[in-house]
């Protein structure tokens, strides 16, 4: 499909997270409204509150019809709107206004909000897969192990931004004890210790760490990306690989590709998991399955 055949989107909802990315959004509504009105579109706004946002947004959407819904925030807001739209056929647009914006980067959406807004007029609809992880929705990346611990501490802290994340990660790294996992997928069984285990339909964290290079978001499969325990001396090399799309280069990494999986930590009742940036404790084992072609997204027309 080309830009000329892109769907005409007239009635638009912008789901706005007032606190995301520590970005001042005071003028945003006025800018978007003016931009849309001048071009014959209507823009409506919905503000998240941080409490019961999914149920409230679902209720709101059941009473109002929109041609597309834009998430104006970070990965948490994108995931919230994506979950409200999954299996509904209404396309998701993204205005990247968070601290990381991982899914928007994976979809090739411009990081400049003004350019991202232009997708209303020039876009290509794409239908991607999403995941169910322990009964919870995921549009992007989830993990067990080291990063989940860091995200949980980050979430509990008062300071946001990459500096706080790096400070917590450095502290946790020194005495982190990797867990042992038992993984059964529709393709294989794997047992072993892992420093970190990422459940990935997408490729890249908001931090630009490429945990799952060259994977498709619409192939009906997902990857379990394992970083096995490594000596401290190997850490810089692994970090370099993660920032240069070289995940498979290290002897301490492996990926399992599958359609469904059961992940357990023998002897544990619960497992800490971060899903699309939100830490949560799930019952052991964690069941994962793909929801093929379940989310419509607005992406740029190729070669523009
Ligand atoms: N009005 C609000 N007040 C406080 N918290 C809110 C509000 N709206 C949404 N939130 C919270 O914002 C978080 C999602 O933030 P989002 O990911 O969109 O932006 P972010 O700044 O990139 O966040 P992060 O740094 O955690 O990735 C969720 O935890 C959600 O509950």
TrEMBL record:
Pfam families: DAGK_cat, YegS_C. It comes from Hymenobacter volaticus. The keyword Transcription does not apply. Residues 7-136 form the DAGKc domain. This is Diacylglycerol kinase family lipid kinase. Gene3D superfamilies: 2.60.200.40, Probable inorganic polyphosphate/atp-NAD kinase, domain 1. InterPro entries: ATP-NAD_kinase_N, Diacylglycerol_kinase_cat_dom, Methylgl_synth, NAD/diacylglycerol_kinase_sf, YegS/DAGK_C. It comes from the Bacteria. One of its GO terms (molecular function) is kinase activity. SMART domains: DAGKc. Keywords: Kinase, Transferase.
